[in-house]
Amino acid sequence: MSEIPALDKDKGPAKVHLLPTTYLPTLPPQAEAYEYHRTAHTPIIIDNGSTNLRWGFGSSSRPNEEPKTFTGPNAIAKYKERKTNKPLLLFGEAIDSESGARGQARTPWEGDVLLNFDALENALDYAFIQLGVDTQTVDHPILMTERLCSPLHSRALTSELMFELYSVPSLTYSIDGVMSFYQNHRTTPLNSPFMSNGLVISFNTASTSVIPILRGKGILSLAKRIPWGASQSSEYLLKLMQLKYPNFPTRVTSTHTNWMFHNFCEVSSDFPSLLRQLQDPLHFRASEVVVQFPFVLPVTEEKTEEELARITERRKEQGKKLQEMAANKRMEKLLQKETDLQYLTSLKESKGTETKKEWMSKLQAENLDSEVALDEIIKKLEGDLKRARKKEAGEVDDGPQEEPSFPLLDVPDLELDEEGIKEKKKQRLLKAGWDARARARREKEREREEKEKEEKKEEDERDQDLGGWSRKLRQEQEALMSKIKERSRRKAALTDRKSAAAQARMKNIASLAADDRVPKAKKRKAGGEDMFGADDADWAIYRKINTAAPSSDEEDDMIQLQIIEQKLLTHDPTFTLQNTHASIATQRSALMSAFRPSYEEGDVEGNARIHLNTERWRVPEAYFSPAMAGVDSAGITEVIQNLIPSFLESRSRPGVLDYLDDRRQVIQNIFLTGQPSLIPGFSTRLETSLKSLLPPDSKVTITRAANPALDAWKGMAAFSRTDEFKSAGCAMTKEEYEEYGGDRVKRWWGGNWNGEIGNSVGGMKVDGENFVIEETMDVDS
After folding, report:
1. Distance (Å) of CA 577 to CA 558, 573, 585, 587, 593
2. Which of 318, 533, 653, 742 is the most buried (most CB within 10 A)?
3. Pfam families this protein is in (predicted)?
4. How far is Cα 407 from Cα 416, in angstroms, rounded to an integer?
5. pLDDT mean over 492-520
6. What is the SS3 assignment for 670-700?
7. What are the CA-CA distances from residue 461 to residues 458, 465, 563 (Å)?
């Protein structure tokens, strides 16, 4: 597919895009000389958008020159300066120059409805001042945009603001999408009839409008508004980023995601096919865009090479000193043991020269009970000295091999005194330990011999039939991998309380909690002490109900799997590292690693990055399927599909003109306007969708406004220079406002109510002629 760039393995990592910083506001261009416009009563054009406010005179004071346009963010903030303690009223980009004013910013719009008229009044004050209006009233006709299907209450308050506060002579409302279409399809000269046909898709900040244009007039009875726009897309992208990076070190705002949406998002011509293509981790990584957020590196004191060399030398000296101290300590212990051994040996030799009572008193002075204890200590010291000397000589100590003697075990207890009986018990314990160690050595030797026999047998089997041996080991590997996978699946299922494994676990817990399930004698013993765990069966139940308890077989399975894979890697040339369990598990998790690459804990720069991959296509896809973002509405394709029967089917009646060719042009001439229309792929996606809905021989033409952000203002400026506008047939005058009130709606082709009143036969009057649109026509003002 064309959405994903080709992967070039010779290139380095993906390009990192730096997040734009906040710039200081720039002063607007110098206003034209107001004296010309004062005397000419030049109309003032105001494009009241949710994001930006655009204003200016409809014509220039110089001939053959385009009128100038003033633009600024449509927001105001009341702020008190700290130094002078004076209240300030900030508009547009000036809000970003004061950090304290950002939290107090207000916009005239609430979603897609004009509600905050205090903010609108302040914004209009700024606009009129920039235009040079220096009178108490604004003595200029006003041409102003409004949203499709704007509420009458909002229009009435806007009219009240214009006529009561500014005393404008006339006020005209127009739809921005229709005026952008007029700018790109009007004929010259300006006063010639506007007879173009097309379907306008206007992308606004909080909505998307679909307006059919037939012979230069908007068919508003068939117009639709989708509650999804650029602001919802930015919020959707922000939520996706918050889910993807819950512990992101920098605060991500809707302003950041709005910049990402307009610069990095694309519309896929086939979204399901794109998702299938992104299953390949290599294509997944090739499609990502990395955004670097600001970060602060930790301050580290850099040292010179001389200081580093000095520190290294100091550490070596300290290591040598520690080694010398440890060696001296070992030598001191060795000398102490030799001294003790000489003393105890002389003590044992003095037995024949002294009386028994004196000799026993010497033993008691050394905390020795009998001669046997003295022999054991002497024997232990000799063994320690022998092992220490072997260690110094580099020899391996295999431990004592000769069996010690236990003479008292064969002596009856009647022939021994109390001390002898104690010594006999001690020798019995020593004998039992010696026998256990001897059995362990014999068992180890037997296991070694069996292992050698198994290896010999396996080697013979491998030499006779390498393929059969390899298939056998591969089957064992598959069985172990299946067991490990099933164990992981069970652990994952236990986290879902509605899964069968979790339900079975709750049943086991309920069975253990029931008193009549387990005998009381087993549950309570020794004065109410809980005896659960006394049997091995209890621990089997515990492992079954405890999700955190490790399996006793899990480690053994992993060890056995590693042994099998090592054998296959050594002897089977067809078995490579790609066939190992670790490689397969890594490949399965490669998509997750590509979805959100992980950086080391100390990598401050890497942890301040956002990787955009699937979100680049998922967020714009909501224009065609708002349900994926939680909005219960039809998408652009579905709205157009519902309009097709009204413009392709012939419904002519006697005495009524049909204009079937013009109606077909409406659905085949798609016009895109608004800033989101600049996102790559919109035209291709719409063309692909429409070709599947229209007849095979239908031609679809999709055009985009020359300047999607400014063409609505330019279209109004061009219309303000026509005789149609000057005749005031589309404007509401101050006299009409005073007579009828702010709810007055003037019917004209560019406004919200353009005279679409169905007659008794279901027709509509356009340019003095009738043509059929629908059998019935219900128009809501």
Report:
1. 16, 11, 12, 12, 20
2. 742
3. Actin
4. 12
5. 63
6. EEEECHHHHCCCHHHHHHHHHHHHCCCCCCC
7. 5, 6, 17
The band of 1, judged by pLDDT with boundaries at 50, 70 and 90, is very low
Q: Distance (Å, rounded) from C-alpha 252 to C-alpha 254?
A: 7
Asked if 198 and 185 count as a contact pair (C-beta separation under 8 A), the reply is yes
Helices 466-494 and 500-513, interaxial angle, to 10°? 60
Find out whether 255 and 263 touch, Cβ atoms under 8 Å.
no
Q: Which two tokens stand for residue 47?
A: 């494009």
CA distances, 516 to each of 249, 401, 513, 587 (Å): 55, 58, 9, 50
Q: What is the pLDDT of residues 278-333, one digit of tens each?
A: 888 788 888 889 999 988 887 777 778 888 888 889 999 998 898 889 888 888 88
Round to whole Å and give the CA distance between 623 and 630: 12
Cβ–Cβ under 8 Å, residues 581 and 568? no
- Any idea of the CA torsion for 648, 651, 654, 655, to the nearest 10 degrees? -60
Residue 151, C-beta contacts closer than 8 angstroms, at least 6 positions apart? 113
204 within 8 A of 147, measured Cβ to Cβ: yes
349-360 burial, b if ≥16 CB within 10 A, otherwise e? eebeeeeeeebb
Distance CA 54, CA 65 (A): 18
For the chain, the straight-line distance linking the first and the last C-alpha, in angstroms and rounded, comes to: 45
CB atoms inside a 10 Å sphere around CB 22: 11
Identify the DSSP state of 657: B
pLDDT value of residue 733: 92
- Single out the residue of 150, 140, 71 nearest to residue 109, CA to CA: 150
The span from the CA of 158 to the CA of 153, in Å, is: 9
**Pairing of β 701-704 and β 669-673:** parallel
Starting at the edge strand found earlier in the chain, the sheet holding 16-18 runs: 16-18, 289-292, 609-612
Q: What span, in angstroms and rounded, lies between the C-alpha atoms of 54 and 51?
A: 10
Residues 681, 684, 690, 692: what is their CA dihedral angle, to the nearest 10 degrees? -110
d(CA 52, CA 73): 4
The token pair that represents 383 in the structure block: 């063994």
Q: Note whether 569 and 577 are within 8 A (CB).
A: yes
Does the pLDDT value for residue 734 go beyond 90?
A: yes
CA distance linking residue 628 with residue 622, whole number of Å: 6
Measured distance CA(220)–CA(164) in Å, rounded: 30
Query: What sections of 514-551 are H helices per DSSP?
Result: 520-523, 536-545
Residue labelled with tokens 């054991």 = 376
Interval 570-625: pLDDT, tens = 888 888 877 887 777 766 666 677 777 878 878 888 889 999 989 999 999 999 99
Within 572-681, residue ranges assigned H as helices are 581-588, 590-595, 604-607, 615-621, 636-648, 660-668
Q: Which residues face 555 on adjacent strands?
A: none
Residue with tokens 């069970």: 490
Q: How distant, in Å, are the alpha carbons of 90, 212, 747, 768 from that of 216?
A: 40, 10, 14, 14
| Domains of the chain, earliest start first | 34-193+708-753 (3.30.420.40), 232-298+601-629 (3.90.640.10), 305-436 (no CATH), 446-592 (no CATH)
Give the 3-state DSSP-derived string for 318-371, with helices as H, strands as E and coil as C.
Answer: HHHHHHHHHHHHHHHHHHHHHHHHHHHHHHHHCCCCCCHHHHHHHHHHCCCCCH
In whole angstroms, give the CA distance from residue 362 to residue 348.
Answer: 10
Q: In Å, how far are 43, 53, 109, 181, 743 from 56, measured between CA atoms?
A: 9, 10, 21, 20, 26
Bridge partners (DSSP) of residue 172 are 143
DSSP state of 192: S
Asked if the bond preceding 680 is cis, omega within 30° of 0, the reply is no
Token code pair at residue 355:
């009386």
Say which residues have a Cβ less than 8 Å from residue 737's Cβ, sequence separation at least 6. 159, 163, 171, 744
- In the numeric block, which tokens belong to residue 495? 């986290």
Per the prediction, the chain carries an average pLDDT of: 80
SS3 101: helix
